[in-house]
Amino acid sequence: MIVITASTGIYLKNRNEVIDAQVKMIKEIGGKIKANCSSPRILIISNPVDILTYFFQKETDFPRSNIIGIASSLDSSRFRYFLSKKIGIKNSEISDAYVLGEHGDSMVPIFSKTKINGENLLEKIDSKQKEEITAETRDYWKSLRNYKSRSQFGIAKNTYDVIESITNNQALSFPASILLKGEFGEKDVCIGVPINITSKGVMEIQDIKFDESEQELFKKSAQTIRNNIQSTQII
């Protein structure tokens, strides 16, 4: 198993600030790994994670089940935190709280699937609270810049869980970035979706249903990633 956390610099306002340097870096790393490893399990942490996962996939042509971009699970943890804070409940009372899409400004908290003690979340919050929670989830990393350079501890915990699952062959379900081939109506893009993994890598992309507005936001998020992929000068 190989975990990639390398970075060419620190971004301050947007995860795509150093995109060209990051893409060049991930292609070089991918080429070296391909020359020395036949079928490794790859966990990509570096940002912008969806774009780097895509370019690593294209550079190595490894099976998509072996390449996982770790980020959406962290976004989901933050989503649960802000939900518990806003509603005044324990984190353990929240289930099925996913954040899908880009690990960036277009990420999509899936309110329609989230349960509070088994009951639908949308019965407990209004549209204003949804907007506030979405903004807080998307922008949380920016507030951390006031205290430290990176939000390393949360992603370290999420990455550890994935490593433990793979090394001990323990099934784990969580959202992560992976190359889509028609799932959720999208293809040729790496984006955060719910997956199931074991020691063999990604065994399944979960086919969950969310409401029409979330579907539209997910579609826009996928297009945002494509636009950013096309904008890079490193081909």
Q: Indicate the structural class.
A: alpha+beta
CATH architecture of the largest domain: 3-Layer(aba) Sandwich
CA radius of gyration:
17 Å
Determine the CATH topology of the largest domain. Rossmann fold
Description of the structure:
The structure is a single chain. The protein is of the alpha+beta class and 235 residues long. It has helices at 19-36, 49-60, 72-87, 127-144, 152-167, 212-231, and strands spanning 2-4, 42-44, 67-69, 94-95, 99-100, 108-109, 115-116, 119-120, 172-181, 187-198, 201-205. It has two domains: 2-71 and 149-208, Rossmann fold (3-Layer(aba) Sandwich), CATH 3.40.50; 72-144, Lactate dehydrogenase/glycoside hydrolase, family 4, C-terminal (L-2-Hydroxyisocaproate Dehydrogenase, Chain A, domain 2), CATH 3.90.110.10. Helix content is 43%, strand content 20%. It has a three-stranded parallel beta sheet, with helices on one face. Strands 4-7-8 form a three-stranded antiparallel beta sheet, with helices on one face. Strands 9-10-11 form a three-stranded antiparallel beta sheet. A hairpin with a 7-residue loop joins strand 5 and strand 6 (108-109). Helix 1 (19-36) runs parallel beside helix 2, helix 2 (49-60) crosses helix 6 and helix 3 (72-87) packs across helix 4 (127-144). It is globular and about 55 Å long. The two termini are 27 Å apart.
